[in-house]
Amino acid sequence: MRRKWDARTKAKIVLEGLMGGSINELCRSNDLRPGQYYKWRGFFLENCHRVFERPPAPQGDTELAAENEELKKLVGELTLELTSGKSIR
């Protein structure tokens, strides 16, 4: 029967292997075939840079940010208007 490994366990095993020590012993202690370990390690090394990438902002966020800035500007103008008693527009 095949075992299912969760992502955290895979990462932990790969990191243990990358830190040194015997891969064969690591695999033996985790009941894992060395070939599987090397597949996980390859995938890990190919994709580890993604940890430092920013996820793309959804399009709605940029629209909301622009609307938020416009509303802040309007609140500032209205506050000045109320405190000075004069209309800015």
UniProtKB/TrEMBL annotation:
Source organism? Pseudodesulfovibrio cashew
Any matching Pfam family: HTH_Tnp_1
Query: Which GO-annotated molecular functions does the record name?
Result: sequence-specific DNA binding; transposase activity
Name the chain's protein. Transposase
Give me the segments passing through the membrane: none
One of this protein's GO BP terms? Answer: DNA transposition
